[in-house]
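Pipeline run #58 for the internal structure catalog. This entry was flagged by the ingest filter as a single-chain record with no existing model, so it goes straight to prediction. Upstream metadata was stripped on purpose; only the residue string is passed forward. Reviewer on rotation: M.T. Logging verbosity set to normal.
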Amino acid sequence: MYSTDNQSSDFQEILQRVRKPLFAAGADVDQDSRQAGAENERCGDSVKLYFQLDDEAKNTDDPLIRAAKHLTVGCSVCCLAADLLCETITGCRISKARNIVQQLRTWQTDPDAPAPESMNRELAALQAIRGKRSRARCFLLPLEALENLMSSL
C-alpha cells in the first residue's frame, strides 16, 4: 500500500502525464506509420494509434513494434490509458501486444485478475476506475484502437 506521500507524488505524476503524454503523436509521426483508431460516440472520446514496425520484421508473422504513438482527444482516463499502452507495446512483438490487450481487458473486468507484469506500477494509477462500468469504455478505447490496428496487419 502506498503512503500518503507516495499517493500524492503518484497523483502529480499522473496529472503531468495526462497534460503532457510521453507517447503523443506529433510532427514526428513517420508518414509510413500504420494507423487505426476507435471512437466512443457517446462521449466523443477518440484514439488514433500509430505504429512503426521494425523494417527487418515487417514481412514476418510476428513483427516487432519499433515505435507506438497516439493522438487522443478525450478524458484523462482515456489519455492516460493510451499513453501507458503505447509505452508498454513499444519494443514488443505483435503476439505480445495481443497478449497485453487480453490481460488488460481481463484486468479491467475481473477484480481478481493480475495486471500485466510490465504495467503493475502504472495500472495502480487506474485502480480506482477498475470495474466501473461508467469508466470502462474510457480505459478500453485505446485497446480497441490497438486491436483495429493489429487486425489490419
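catalog note: The first helix runs from residue 4 to 19.
catalog note: The CA atoms of residues 72 and 79 lie 6 Å apart.
status: ready for reviewer M.T.
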